[in-house]
Every structure is written in C-alpha cells, then in structure tokens.
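During the reporting period the student researcher (J.K.) took over the structure-prediction task from the postdoctoral fellow and processed the backlog of single-chain submissions. One of the processed entries is reproduced below for the supervisory committee.
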Amino acid sequence: MIRRRLLLLLIAVCVAIVIAVPLVWTLAPGGWTPAKVVMLISYLCAAPWVGLCFANGLTGFIARLAGGDPEPPAAIANLPRTAIAVTVRNEDMTAVLPPLRTLLDELEAAGAGDSFALFILSDTNDSAAVTAEEQAVEAFRAHHPVNYRRRANNEGFKAGNIMDFLDHHAGGFTVMLVLDADSRMSARAVLRLVTTMRDDPTLGIVQHLTVGLPASSAFPRFFQFGMRAGMRSWATAQAWWQGDEACYWGHNAVIRIAPFRAHCRLPLLPGGIPILSHDQVEAALLSGAGWGVRLLAEEDGSAEANPPALPEFTYRELRWLAGNFQYRHLLGLPGLRTMGRWQLVQAIMLFAGTPFYLVLFAAAAFAAATDGTSPFPAGPALAVTLAWSAALYAPKWFGYLEILLQRDQRERYGGTARFLAGMAAETMFTLLLDAITAVGKTIATAQIALGRRAGWAPQNRADRGVTWGEAARLFWPQTLIGIIGFAGLATSGWKAVLWGLPLAGGLLVSIPFCVLTASPALGARCARWGLAAIPEEIGQTRRRHSWRV
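J.K. obtained the following structure tokens:
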C-alpha cells in the first residue's frame, strides 16, 4: 500500500511539473508583469488537485481494466441484524417511501428479509410536513413494518440524528445501512455491503459507489452522465491506493454500530459550532481507532437523485464547500491516522482550488488589456490549457475510454454513436457549468474567510423550470465578470477571446444556461433522443418497447 501511495504521488507531481514548465515558457516572453506572476501562482496553487485528478484517473482506469471477472455473490447466511436507517427532514414522503418498499420486497424475495428492519429518522420541523409524513408512514405500515421516530429539534444535523438513533433505538442491531431521502439501493447491492461486513470483522464502514438516477430534466441528465464516468475511475483508484482507510460519503453505506457509537461522536468546532459535513470526519475517527473503512467501487444497485436545476446544484455545492472548509479546524485532532488527515485535506482541496481558476482568468484578461507590447501567445496558451483540462478531467475521460473499449458496455449506453453524442454534449455542459460555479464558490470562500457561518437548509429535489427573472437575479455576477473579462481579452484580438471561451465562456451564458437546462421541453427532447442516457434509462426504454411488441 505504501508503494501504491508513493506511485500515485509521483504521478501527481510529474503531471503538475509537466504542465507548469510550458506555462512558464508561455508567460516568460516580454518579461514578468504582476498579472503574469498571478497567473503562475494561481496554477501552482491549483496544481496539487490537478495532479491528483490525473493520477486517480489513470490508476483507476488501469485497475479497472486489470480487475478481472467480478466475484460471485456471497452466500446469504448468518447475516448480522441490520437496521435500515433513513434520515429525512421536510421531505416529500411520496418520493421517499416507494423505493424502500421495493427494497424490502427484494430482500424478502432473496430470503434475507428477517435480518433487516426499517427506521425512518425524522428531523422534520414544518407542521404541515409533519402531518403528511406521519400519514405516509402509517399508510406504509399496511404493507411493511416500519419504525418511525421524530426529533423535536435538528441538533447536530444529520450526524446528531444518527447518533440519537444509535443511543436510544438501535438495541439488538449489529450494523446499520444508512440511506438519505433520495437514496435508492437494490437488495443485491445491500447484501453485497452486509456480507462484506459479515466476512471481515475488522471493518467499521463499507461504502458503496453511488450513481445518479435516471432524470427527465436536462441538467441532471448531463451532470450525472459525466459524473458516473468520472466517479467510477476515481473510486476504483481511491480503493486501490487507500485500502481499508478509504472515504465515507454519508449514505448508501453499511456501518458497524458498536465502534461507530463509541468513536464517532463529533467534536464541536471553535465557538461551539457543530460540524456540517460529518461523513469524512466519522471515517477518519473510526479509522484512527483501528477500524477499516472500505470503498466498493461497484456502480450497480446504488443510486441517488441529483439536483434538478442549476440553482439547487449551486446551493448544494456551497453547502458542501462550507462543510468541507470546516475540516481545517480538525486537521490536528488527536487520534487520527495519516490517511485520515489526508481525507480531510482532500475534501478541502475539492473546493479550495476553484477560486484560482477564476483568478487565473481575471489575470489573463488584465494582462491582455494592459500589455500592448507582446502579442497574445495563442498556440502555447492553448496547448497549456488543453493539458491542464485533460489532467483536471482525467477521471472522466478515462471512464469514457473504459466504456469505448468494451462493446458490451457501449451497448449498455445505447451504442457507440449515442454514447459519443452524450460525451460531446456533457463536455460542453461541464465546461460551461464549471465556469459558472467558480464565481459562486469564490464568493463563498471569501465570505467564509471573513467569518460568515453556514447553515444546512432542506433541499428541493423536484424537477422545475427556472424563470429568466430568477436566473438573472442569481447569476448576474457571473455575467458581469464574463463581460469584463472577455472585453479585456478582446483588446489582444480574437485569438485571445477564442482561448478564453473553453475556460470561462460559461460566464457569458450563465443566465440562458440556467433557464435552458431546467427547461422541461429540453429535458423531454433529450430523453426522446436518448442524449446522455445512462444504462438504467436505456434498460427501462428497452423493457417498455419489448412489452409493447
């Protein structure tokens, strides 16, 4: 494992250097102005994450191709008594409960139903939602037993909800399956987790890779198409070099109750502030106590819903950013192992590098507007940008390559032509999206640095359209920054503008992007064309057509 970690580090450092050297060559002609220095520093600050992305993408790709045949399912015998713990807060229970009924039916059909019991752990505080929630649970009881508990407050957020359950309601259970309100798991995936825990008594958490659910809205369709490819290679790499010191994402995972209850009570942050993003801290605490945390990089049977539109996606990203940045207070927490501290650092890096992309663009625009003596180095600048982008998005591109190399996998996505069309659409979508969200993340980072406290509000999970007024109110800063930045680039000519479009073109179209990707009409067209369709959607379509025949 040490050799694997050193190899990954070597790859990451080499990639960062390989991009940094031509960047210096590109910037050096004409002398080092303050703007050029800022550009170089911005890249150097973002380089650790860029290098890690490429190293994870490459090693995950190789590990998946060399992985061989999947192991047969473990025998369903002597299963530990398992509590299915579903956390909810002001949720639409008509969307939460049906998948749970399906899961319980599948477990019963597999002969494992007696080993599982369902618990709905509510932190709902809206009176109307409480009434609807209680009525939905009572109706559910007509089909399956369910244990329902609602707290009077949201103390400790989700982590407090789970720990309260373990302290007062988990007697007689050995492990628990943690699910969010939008989680979907098949019995096969759940039994994979539980039997893995049963067969290795040193494990404290077994985390399943989670993919996006089929979506009708265009925004989650494109997002999850690319995320699925990237997370598959990323998670495989993480499992390869982290071993049983891997990550925990807070849901779609099985936890051994006794050690979790003993070691994972979260400390308060300075000022008595509760931790928002609990999962990585809990994994680090459990690993520090000598328990294994394993990631199963299997994508079948474990899914979640993605935000339906850009506003909800932005709110979720900013919540995660605020939670992950809290980890800076915990890096010196006693009892953590080196890999546990690294998990916290990695979570911070996920967002910490984003402002430097925006700073680099702003510095480039300033340099173009103020340096009238040196022509814009279009060729070298484009080469450096392509290399940077290739490394940054390497997990996704290696995930795509894995599919293209396997005929059966291409067929799962509807064939080569449909898959390539999805790749092209998703690439354009991601380039625009990342530029847009960089502004919000930069502003949020500055606010946190100035002492703003973050909260954790309930999420909207339902598809919806976005009006032009709402989009303009939310994304006018992106538009303004884009106009100013590209005006600066334009002073150096059209080549500079073309260079900036892949990097920051999304800023100029942030408002129409928000409206169009939330449009029901566009989502319906994408579904009809099968654009960016995932295997589960392809399978549903084929079953419908087969039934009609």
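The committee noted the following: The chain has 21 helices and ten strands.
J.K. will present the remaining backlog at the next meeting.
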